[in-house]
Amino acid sequence: MRPRALAACAALSIALPVLAACGGNASMRAQGARVSDVPDPEPERFAGSKPVVVLAGKATYYSDSLAGNHTANGEIYDPARLTAASRDLPFGSIVRVIRRDTGAHVVVRINDRGPFGNRRRILDLSRAAARELGMLSRGVVDVRAEVLELGRGRRARKR
Fold it and tell me: Is the peptide bond before 115 cis (omega within 30 degrees of 0)?
């Protein structure tokens, strides 16, 4: 065996068990991706909270094809998590999203930027959040977004 090939085999024999111990997201972690350790917001914790800011507009939800891609704060998008994208709110903000026509609501954490294009669209929701609101078949719904806690993450740039 050539010296370079021998060195590569030795490196792999050390790296593979380490990567296997990382769990299901080993390949993403090996590529430098961050999987969020932040748990989904607990609705009970925010049940009686008064909103800091209230926004009104339309919400959409992410395509499943984006699963595994990086969000703007460096996390990996997971459609099963209760997360959302906002153009203006700081990362880590907790938002209660209420569907105006049915009253269905969900509490999400901001971890990405968007939606872009139509300014009336104020949030892009994860698939799990969209399911909670019952909007999977509609795609776009009118919402009231109550910011319950402003995040300490990076704020969006002013336009």
Answer: yes
